Amino acid sequence: MNRKGFLSIEILVAASLLIVIVSGYAALQYRLLGVAKDAKHYQLALHEAANQIATLQGMTDSQLDDGIKKAQLPEDVLRSLPNGKLFIEKIVDQKGTRVIVRVLWDRAGTPSPVELTGWISTGPAGDQTQGEVRS
Predict the structure, then answer these.
(1) Burial call 109-124: b when 16+ CB within 10 Å, e when fewer
(2) How far apart, in whole angstroms, are the C-alpha atoms of residue 66 and residue 93?
(3) How far apart (Å, rounded) are the C-alpha atoms in residues 67 and 65?
(4) 3-state DSSP call for residue 86?
(5) Cα–Cα–Cα angle for 120, 126, 131, nearest 5°?
(6) Which of 10, 17, 50, 126 has the most neighbouring CB atoms within 10 Å?
(7) What does the angle CA 83 – CA 70 – CA 43 come to, to the nearest 5 degrees?
(8) Position 69 pLDDT exceeds 60
(9) In 3D, which of 84, 31, 82 has the Cα closest to residue 71?
(10) Which residue, among 99, 104, 97, 79, has the nearest Cα to 89 in the 3D structure?
(11) How far apart are the C-alpha atoms of 49 and 99, rounded to whole Å?
């Protein structure tokens, strides 16, 4: 057998394997960067939802509806979250008043929004008992 031809085939196989390994590694790195970016966006959205709840918890019942209407994502959050949107829902029932804060932004696939629920008051509707212990 011709040694030159055999060496050429070895080099071709080795180069092919190297190309497959490097391209697989590059694809993995690209995907990991996307996951890290999405995790950063998720964390930012979660912190912003918590900030919105804390702001609303500091309001009285009479201020709450107006506070919900005026609530919006800050400029720095809007710059970081692609097409970021804020939705706040007020729920009043026999357990008290609570708000559900949802933060959405453009992400790959069909992910759920970040959603947090915060109690504004407990007990019958309109009974302001924030921070009090009820017996």
Answers:
(1) eeeeebebebebbeee
(2) 19
(3) 5
(4) strand
(5) 40
(6) 50
(7) 45
(8) yes
(9) 84
(10) 99
(11) 11
Domain boundaries, the chain: 3-122
Tokens 């007990």 belong to: 123
For 31-61, write each residue's pLDDT tens digit.
999 889 999 999 999 999 999 999 999 998 8
Distance CA(97)–CA(122), nearest Å, equals 6
Residue 6 pLDDT grade (very low, low, confident, very high; cuts 50, 70, 90): confident
Cβ neighbours for 130, distance < 8 A, ≥ 6 positions apart = 57, 120, 121
Token duo for residue 56:
């609303």
* C-beta separation of 99 from 120 below 8 A: yes
Strands (E), the chain: 85-93, 96-104, 114-122
Q: Decide: 56 and 118 in contact? Cβ < 8 Å.
A: yes
| Distance of alpha carbon 112 from alpha carbon 97, whole angstroms | 24
